[in-house]
Design a protein that fits this description.
- By secondary structure, the chain is an alpha/beta fold.
- It has 2 domains: about 200 residues, FAD/NAD(P)-binding domain, CATH 3.50.50; about 150 residues, D-Amino Acid Oxidase, subunit A, domain 2 (D-Amino Acid Oxidase, Chain A, domain 2, 2-Layer Sandwich).
- The chain is built from 10 helices and 17 strands.
- The strands form 3 sheets. Strands 1, 2, 7, 8, 9, 10, 16 and 17 form an 8-stranded mixed sheet that branches. A 7-stranded mixed sheet has the order 5-4-12-13-14-11-15, with helices on both faces. Strands 3-6 form a two-stranded antiparallel sheet.
- Strand 4 and strand 5 form a beta hairpin.
- Helix 1 runs parallel beside helix 6.
- The structure holds flavin-adenine dinucleotide.
- Flavin-adenine dinucleotide binds next to helix 1, strand 2, strand 8, strand 11 and strand 15.
Length: about 400
C-alpha cells in the first residue's frame, strides 16, 4: 500500500513527540526509522502529499552505499561499471571501466515509499501534506491537511533539504554555495551497450559541474547542473539544448511526456554549526554532499546514523549538552581535498580550459585520478563518530 494511503492525518490541535523530523527525503526517513527502532516516539512530516512526487534526485547510488545499506534490490536498476567522459565537442570520450559494479540508479518513488513503509513499521508517525511553519521554543508549528497543529517535542531534526527552514529557525549554519541541477527521465530499452554513465564537461552547458546521461537499459536520465548565475540561457534551456544533442542516446526515442526533476545541490561541504540544544540538521540541510561529485545520497544516510546515535544518547541520558557532540566542523576536515578540487573545477570557465583538462585526463595519471574520484570509496567519513555518553548516565 502506498505510504500516503496509510498515513493518518495529523489532527488539528496539539500533540507531543520525543523527536519531530521535518522532511521525508532519504535523510529524514532514515533518521526517523533508526530513532523509532531505538524506542523513541517520532513524528515525521513532509509537505509533499505523496513521496512518489516532486523527486529531486537522479538516484545514483554508489557501491559503498549498496554494500552498507540494505536497499530493496527490486527498486534498483542494473549495475553500471562504465563511465565515459566527454569534452565540449563530444569527440574522443575518455572511457573508464571498473572491474566492479560501481553504481545503480534507484527507482526513487518506490524507494521513498518502501522507506516510508519501513518507518511506519518501526512506529514512526508519518504525516504527509504537512508543512513545518516555525517554532516557539520547543513548540513547533505545522500546517497539515486538517489545519494547524502544534507539536511539543524534545528535539527537532531539520531534514528539510538544501534551503532548510529548520536551520534558519534554530539559528544554525545555512548552505550558501549551491549548484542547481535539472534532468528529464524516461523509460528506454536496452540498446546493446553496457549500462553507461556519460558525463559531459562543458562550461556552457554545465558551468562548474557536468551534464550527464545515464542509460542503464531501463531508464534514461538526461540532465545538467552548474552555478545558477553562470548558465548563459538559464537551466531549463540548457537541459533542452543538451537533451537534443546528448551522447549515448543513439536509437532512443524521447517520449513527448517525460518526468522532470530538479533542485539545489549544496557544494560548500558539511556546515560547521549543525546542532544546538533544541535540535540538529541532517542530509542536504547540513550540507552533507560531496563538494566534488555532488553526490548526497550516501552522505545523508551516514550522517543520519550519527544523528540518531547522538539523539538516542540525549534522550536516554537526558544530558542537555549531548547534541554539542554533533559538530560539523570536525566532519569538514574529511572534505578538505574535495573542497579544493571543487574550487578548481569552478574556475574552468572556457572550452579551451576544459580541453586542456582533457589533455591531462588522457594521460595515465589523469585517468587514475579520475578513476579515484569516480570509483573511489570515500564519499563521506566511513563511520562518523561522536563520543557516546557514558553508560552510567543512562
Ligand atoms: C538534479 C539532482 C540530481 C541529483 N542526483 C544525485 C545522485 O544521482 N546521487 C546522489 O548521491 N546525489 C544526487 N543528488 C543529491 C541528492 O539527491 C541529495 O543530496 C539527497 O537527496 C538529499 O536528501 P535529503 O533527504 O537531505 O533532502 P531532500 O531529498 O531534498 O528532502 C527534503 C524533504 O523536506 C521536505 N520539506 C522541505 N521543507 C519542508 C517544510 N517546511 N515542511 C515539511 N517538509 C519540508 C521536502 O518536501 C523534501 O521531501 C542530486 C541532486 C539534484 C538536485
Amino acid at each position: 500500500m502506498p505510504a500516503a494511503a496509510r498515513t493518518p492525518h495529523l489532527p488539528a490541535g496539539t500533540t507531543t513527540a520525543d523527536v519531530l523530523v521535518v522532511g521525508a527525503g532519504l535523510a529524514g526517513l532514515h533518521v526517523a526509522t533508526v530513532l523509532a527502532r531505538q524506542g523513541h516516539d517520532v513524528l515525521l512530516v513532509d509537505r509533499r502529499t505523496t513521496l512518489a512526487g516532486a523527486i529531486r534526485t537522479t538516484g545514483i547510488f554508489v557501491r559503498k552505499t549498496l554494500d552498507d545499506y540494505p536497499l530493496p534490490d527490486e527498486h534498483l536498476g542494473p549495475p553500471i561499471r562504465r563511465v565515459l567522459l566527454y569534452p565540449p565537442d563530444l569527440r574522443r570520450p575518455v572511457s573508464l571501466v571498473s572491474d566492479r559494479d560501481e553504481y545503480r540508479v534507484g527507482d526513487m518513488a518506490r524507494l521513498y515509499e518502501a522507506g516510508a513503509a519501513a518507518a511506519a513499521d518501526a512506529g514512526v508517525r508519518l504525516s504527509l501534506g504537512t508543512r513545518y511553519a516555525g517554532r516557539h521554543g520547543r513548540t513547533f508549528h505545522l500546517i497539515g491537511r486538517d489545519g494547524p497543529t502544534d507539536v511539543r517535542a524534545r528535539f527537532v531534526v531539520g531534514a528539510d533539504g538544501a534551503r532548510s527552514t529548520v536551520a534558519r529557525d534554530l539559528g544554525l549554519d545555512r548552505n550558501r554555495r549551491l549548484l542547481v541541477g535539472a534532468e528529464e527521465v524516461y523509460e528506454v530499452r536496452p540498446n546493446g551497450e553496457p549500462p553507461t554513465f556519460h558525463c559531459v564537461l562543458d562550461p556552457a552547458l554545465a558551468p562548474g559541474y557536468l551534464a550527464w546521461v545515464v542509460h542503464d537499459g531501463q531508464h534514461a536520465h538526461v540532465g545538467t547542473a552548474g552555478y545558477a548565475h553562470r548558465f548563459p540561457e538559464g537551466l531549463r534551456r540548457a537541459v533542452a539544448r543538451f537533451s537534443a544533442s546528448a551522447p549515448g542516446l543513439a536509437g532512443v526515442e524521447r517520449p513527448e511526456a517525460v518526468e522532470r526533476r530538479g533542485g539545489p545541490i549544496p557544494v560548500g561541504g558539511v556546515l560547521r554549526r549543525i546542532s544546538c540544544a533544541d535540535g540538529l540538521l541532517v542530509g542536504d540541510a547540513a550540507g552533507a554532499v560531496s563538494p566534488l561529485t555532488a553526490g548526497g545520497l550516501d552522505p545523508c544516510l551516514r550522517l543520519s546514523d550519527l544523528a540518531a546515535r547522538v539523539l538516542d544518547d540525549a534522550l536516554t541520558a537526558g544530558k542537555p549538552d549531548a547534541l554539542a557532540h554533533y559538530d560539523g566542523a570536525g566532519l569538514r576536515a574529511a572534505f578538505r581535498g574535495r573542497l579544493s578540487l571543487r574550487r578548481g573545477l569552478s574556475h574552468v570557465r572556457t572550452p579551451a580550459a576544459t580541453n586542456a583538462a582533457f589533455t591531462l585526463l588522457r594521460t595515465p595519471l589523469g585517468r587514475a585520478a579520475a578513476s579515484r574520484v569516480l570509483f573511489g570509496d570515500r564519499s563521506f567519513p566511513d563511520r562518523p563518530t561522536a563520543p557516546r555518553v557514558h553508560a552510567a548516565h543512562r
